[in-house]
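$ ./design --mode recover --in tokens.txt
reading tokens...
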């Protein structure tokens, strides 16, 4: 369906004192009047003409069906996401629809029954970045169809964004350019853009240096910027909140905990809940927790001062490499959301995030180190009784553990610097001797019991 004329949507400056408004098909990332970031704003009036029950029924009927493109958990909410794009220009891998895993066994170990992990890494490129990239690349394809000259789409990345951009651009037939910090992404993350035909530029700097470079390139040339400062990405990522409530029969959890690096995910999470609240599908908002690695914690340091000031930091090397960001571009959006949601920012050390990830893996998941940061943060808040034992808690797992096998192997072999591997499970090496094999089996079964 073509919703261009029925539903209005535009870019708007996030500064409440500024009235900067721009069309979605303009290549723009910051307000021309005050240089603040932009956000996508929807005209709620035509959306309110459909009742809450009608929206719920529509979304439920589309969910995981094979009617293009509405079986996608993102494009199944097209009217709320990006009605500007015509169906034939949607670039989708049927992203979303990820499992909300009931962490029953882990919850029993720590005394929390209503604990869930949203497995956003169970998707096409193995991270939640797909949810935002489908929207951004679809808009670019629509702009090109409307006559815009856009030679390529580019991003700076710590790994997952580059994988998502490369895959969706490959599907659309659009050139992708990715800027990666040399030797700071996993092999699995590096091989994805290479395989999908992206132009990969490996720079001898960190993510913040790559981000500065890609912004200069995109500003000086007509290359489209795909980082989360482009709020089109946020529109896709906000569907995590909508899908989450949909999976709980439109009930709202008490807490949602998400790792934070460049901080677009925090603002996206909030936007999803806000639009449901404004349209009456939910009657309360959850509390949001942003989890940061201790070695890349500028938002946490700001939180300790009541968000009265924010200062970038030089991010140190962390095992949670995708959130190794010291100068997040979406910080103002994230702070705004956290204030609205009575939010908390907490941090986790390398030892804490590694052992938290391993502990939950032992109950059936396979988590990335960034999810480990969120789990460690959850355990801290539970210990302080900020989170109560009877609260419904959802932890957002942002990427699949298979993208970080070096981290997993290093943990179980005890090779991670600064980490005491309390749940290490190294293989038992034996000669092919039946007696020794039997002995090893029964000694270890007894020990595990």
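writing sequence...
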């Amino acid at each position: 369906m073509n919703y261009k004329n029925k539903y209005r949507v535009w870019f708007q400056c996030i500064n409440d004192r500024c009235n900067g408004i721009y069309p979605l098909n303009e290549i723009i990332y910051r307000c021309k009047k005050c240089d603040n970031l932009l956000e996508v704003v929807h005209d709620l009036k035509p959306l309110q003409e459909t009742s809450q029950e009608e929206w719920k029924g529509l979304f439920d009927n589309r969910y995981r069906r094979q009617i293009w493109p509405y079986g996608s958990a993102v494009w199944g909410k097209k009217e709320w996401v990006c009605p500007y794009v015509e169906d034939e220009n949607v670039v989708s891998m049927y992203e979303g629809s990820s499992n909300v895993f009931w962490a029953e066994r882990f919850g029993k170990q720590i005394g929390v029954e209503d604990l869930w992990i949203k497995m956003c890494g169970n998707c096409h490129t193995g991270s939640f970045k797909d949810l935002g990239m489908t929207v951004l690349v679809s808009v670019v394809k629509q702009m090109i169809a409307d006559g815009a000259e856009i030679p390529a789409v580019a991003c700076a990345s710590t790994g997952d964004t580059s994988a998502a951009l490369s895959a969706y651009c490959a599907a659309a037939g659009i050139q992708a350019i990715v800027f990666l910090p040399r030797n700071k992404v996993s092999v699995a993350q590096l091989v994805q853009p290479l395989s999908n035909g992206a132009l990969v530029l490996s720079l001898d700097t960190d993510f913040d240096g790559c981000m500065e470079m890609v912004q200069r390139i995109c500003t000086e040339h007509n290359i489209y910027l795909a980082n989360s400062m482009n709020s089109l990405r946020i529109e896709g990522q906000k569907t995590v909140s909508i899908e989450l409530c949909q999976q709980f029969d439109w009930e709202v959890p008490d807490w949602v905990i998400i790792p934070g690096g460049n901080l677009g995910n925090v603002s996206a999470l909030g936007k999803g809940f806000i639009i449901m609240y404004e349209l009456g599908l939910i009657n309360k908002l959850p509390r949001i927790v942003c989890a940061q690695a201790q070695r890349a914690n500028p938002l946490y340091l700001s939180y300790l001062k009541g968000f009265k000031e924010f200062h970038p930091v030089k991010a140190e090397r962390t095992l949670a490499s995708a959130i190794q960001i010291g100068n997040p571009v979406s910080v103002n959006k994230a702070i705004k959301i956290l204030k609205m949601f009575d939010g908390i920012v907490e941090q986790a050390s390398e030892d804490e995030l590694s052992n938290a990830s391993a502990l939950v893996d032992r109950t059936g998941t396979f988590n990335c180190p960034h999810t480990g940061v969120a789990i460690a943060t959850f355990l801290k808040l539970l210990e302080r009784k900020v989170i109560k034992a009877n609260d419904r808690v959802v932890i957002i797992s942002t990427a699949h553990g298979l993208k970080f096998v070096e981290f997993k192997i290093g943990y179980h072999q005890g090779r991670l610097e600064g980490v005491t591997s309390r749940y290490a499970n190294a293989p038992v090496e034996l000669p092919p001797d039946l007696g020794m094999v039997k002995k090893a089996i029964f000694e270890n079964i007894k020990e595990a019991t």
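exit 0
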